Amino acid sequence: MFRPLLLSLLVAVSGMVQAATFKLEVNASDANGHVRKHFVYNASGCHGDNVSPSLTWHGAPKGTRGFAVTVYDPDAHGGWWHWIVLDIPPTTHQLKQGATLPPGAYALKNSFGHARWDGPCPPPNDPPHHYIFTVYALDTAALGLSADASPVMAKTALDKHNLGQASVTYTFGR
């Protein structure tokens, strides 16, 4: 009677321990955790270089068949997507700074309307915004979304196929 429950608990704990080893490193911040100018948007009153930062991840859960990366600002009115990269091959564990995406991977249109990285650019006089960089380990190699899918559609698909995720948060204000 208790064996199925115990087995379920062991599987759940095992999954949590494994997920805890999934780590993301993002080379985008200064010593204070603020996004460096090099990665900031270059329009709308912001004066950065708009270069995507380097992301490296390791320790993905067993069974990972693909990855996805998102960068989201929850402080913007209604939230703001800066980057959504889908169908990253399971053999890829890094997106280099300003790099071209690996074969098979593609970016969806972000909240700026571009299928690429667009860096932070919060409204003037707003408190600093938080930028959440997340890599998702997925149970599928391809989410089956078209290039014109919305970020909300992508997030729904990511949640459905998520084996684990790792996040890093930085701030930026002007």
Could you characterize the architecture of this molecule?
The chain has 174 residues and is of the alpha+beta class. It has one domain: Phosphatidylethanolamine-binding Protein. Helices cover 17% and strands 30% of the residues. The protein contains 2 helices and 8 strands, in the order H-E-E-E-E-E-E-E-H-E. It has a 5-stranded antiparallel beta sheet with strand order 6-4-3-7-8. A hairpin with a 6-residue loop joins strand 3 (66-73) and strand 4. The longest helix has 18 residues, at 3-20. It is globular and about 45 Å long.
Which key phrases capture this entry?
single chain; 174 residues; alpha+beta; Phosphatidylethanolamine-binding Protein; three-stranded antiparallel sheet; 17% helix; 30% strand; globular
How much of the sequence lies in strands comes to 25-35%
Give the CATH architecture: Alpha-Beta Complex
Radius of gyration: 17 Å
Outline type: globular
Query: Can you list the strand order of the major beta sheet?
Result: 6-4-3-7-8
CATH topology (level 3) name: Phosphatidylethanolamine-binding Protein
**Count of helix runs:** 2
The share of residues in helices is 10-25%
Summary, kept brief:
This protein is of the alpha+beta class and 174 residues long. The chain contains 2 helices and 8 strands. The chain starts with a helix and ends with a strand.
Fold blueprint:
Elements: H1 3-20, E1 23-27, E2 54-58, E3 66-73, E4 80-88, E5 94-95, E6 106-107, E7 129-138, H2 151-161, E8 162-172
